[in-house]
Every structure is written in C-alpha cells, then in structure tokens.
Write a structure and sequence with these properties.
The protein has helices at residues 41-48, 70-75, 92-102, 108-118, 134-146, 164-178, 190-196, 214-220, 237-241, 268-277, 292-300, and strands spanning 3-12, 15-25, 29-34, 56-61, 64-65, 77-80, 152-156, 182-186, 199-204, 207-213, 224-231, 248-251, 256-262, 282-287. The protein is an alpha/beta fold. Strands 6-7-8-3-9-10 form a six-stranded mixed sheet, with helices on both faces. Strands 2-1-4-5 form a four-stranded antiparallel sheet. Strands 12-13-11-14 form a four-stranded antiparallel sheet.
C-alpha cells in the first residue's frame, strides 16, 4: 500500500482531533478524503506528510514510517496544502526551478517545462507569482507538488479559486495522475468527488464513518429506493399507494410523484404495469440516484 494509516490519534489537550482512524490508499486510485470543517481531515494529512507528529498510532508512506523514516517518506510525497504557500516575489519558472533543485531533480529545465505545460502555465511562466490570480497560483502549487515525480500526491482543495473551465482541466489531470500514482484528494465540493474519485473516506468528529468505492458507498447508505413518476392524467395518492412494494407516496408538482420503497426493491416495472392497466400516459419514470452529498449529510449531521 502506498499510504497506510493504523489507529491514528491526535490530541490537543483534552480534544481528540483524530480518534483512532485506520485506512489504506492504493496505487492507481484517487481517494476522496471527506468530512465537515473540524472533522480532522487536515490534521490527518499533516501527520501523513510529516508536518506534525501523531499522539498515537502509525502512518506509513510507501512502506516508510513517517516518524522513523521521515526523509524517505517525505521524498515519496507531493503535497498541495489548502492555503498554498508560495514565494510571491519569485517568477513562476524561477520558483519551480528552485523547488526542483531542493528535490534534487535530474534534468531540472526539462522537468520544469513539462510541469508548466501539464498544469496550463505556459503563458504565465514568465510572470511574478504575486501577479497571478488565485487560480493560477493554485496551478503553480500543483506543479511544485508534482515536480519530483512522487509516488503519492496529497491535494487539499486543489480546484479552489479556479474557474469552471480550469476546474475541468485540473480534474482531468488528477484523474490521469491517479492511473499511475496514489492520489488523496480532500475537497468540500462533493460533486468533484463523484467526478474524480474511485473511492471515498468520510470522517466525522475525528472518527472514520465510511470507506467504500463511490458507487458502493451510495448503495450502502441508501435506506430507501425513490422512483419519480409523472403522468399526463391526474392520479391520486391512494391509487399510487396500492402499487406493489410502494411504502410511501409524495406529490411534488402537478402530476409528478415520488414513490418510496425498500432500498432493494425496484418498483418501476410495477408502476409501468399500473399505468398500462389504468390507461395512463407516462411522461417520466426514473429511479433517483443517491449522491455522495446525500450520503455525506446522512453521516455528518
């Protein structure tokens, strides 16, 4: 495993910011790391990257203990923190060249040019970092995280400040990187998790409350199946409630209804049969899909 966390604990006086969490992140996947503000996400990432020590437990990166083998572990990580620290008086290419030198990167000029191109900084490489928009500063931060070709990338809010077109580009870059590296992505944009991540971890109040592939996560925490149906004709709730396996009926707009049933039941065939038997015209019939946002709200309220 590229990243392995075992019974990790971090306390500040009497407060447990991280409370015994364990998880693994594998090569070739993008792992979404989610939780509300104050849940312990950033603290966990700081421990993994060696910024702060844990109180108890174990954190390993590419087989290296982040405390006992700190140099080797850090060399395996590319880190983009939420508040991206940059030398604003330096020029983009100058800063990346400087960073590459710190990492003892071979063929520095070639590697810097490659990262400039991959992160869309070509037209801005000669500018001072302080003159860049927040979105382009974010790109510089992402470029420096990737310069030394690390096995593990830890990205905290990587699309913060980007415009919609830039977000699409950076998401695609993250997905591409996830095919060859281990990527841990922390974000408050839950749609981003569905768009980019293979798997998600959710923590709440320092504890791990979910760990599953995205589709499995949505199925696992879906307590109900919801079918939306719209008829051309007027239909009342009593008739719809009589449909097999339908437990609850709610009217939304005009002749549009939501039919609730057990999570393992799919009533669409029964609704279609009901419409045929009663000579009703179906305008819409689809099963609602639980989103990561729905699951997140269920687990962190």
């Amino acid at each position: 495993m590229s990243v392995k966390v075992t019974n990790l604990v971090k306390t500040y006086d009497s407060q447990r910011a991280v409370d015994g969490i364990s998880f693994e992140a594998r090569k070739g996947e993008v792992l979404g790391f989610l939780g509300p503000n104050g849940a312990g996400k950033t603290t966990t990432m700081k421990i993994i990257t060696g910024y702060i020590p844990q109180t108890d437990g174990l954190a390993e990166v590419c087989g290296f203990d982040v405390n006992k083998n700190a140099t080797e572990a850090r060399a395996s990580i590319g880190y983009l923190p939420e508040h991206n620290p940059l030398y604003k008086e330096m020029y983009v290419r100058e800063y990346l060249t400087f960073t590459a030198g710190l990492h003892q990167v071979k063929q520095i000029s070639k590697k810097v040019d490659e990262m400039v191109e991959r992160t869309g900084l070509t037209s801005h490489r000669g500018k001072q970092i302080g003159e860049l928009s927040k979105g382009y500063r974010q790109r510089v931060g992402l470029a420096q995280a990737m310069l030394h070709d690390p096995e593990v990338l830890i990205l905290d809010e990587p699309t913060s400040g980007l415009d919609p077109n830039q977000i699409v580009e950076i998401r695609q870059l993250i997905k591409d990187l996830g095919k060859e590296k281990t990527v841990i992505l922390s974000t408050h944009i839950l749609g981003e998790v569905e768009a980019v991540c293979d798997r998600a971890i959710i923590i709440n109040k320092g504890k791990l409350v979910a760990d599953a592939p995205i589709q499995e996560l949505k199925q696992q925490f879906s307590g109900q199946s919801i079918v939306t149906v719209e008829f051309a004709e007027k239909v009342d709730a009593k008739r719809l409630s009589a449909i097999k396996n339908v437990d609850l009926v709610k009217n939304t707009v005009h002749n549009t209804w939501k039919l609730y049933s057990d999570a393992h039941k799919d009533v669409r065939a029964d609704v279609f049969a009901f419409a045929v038997a009663n000579q009703l015209t179906l305008l819409e019939l689809h099963k609602e899909v639980l989103s990561v946002e729905d699951v997140f709200q269920q687990l962190t309220k």
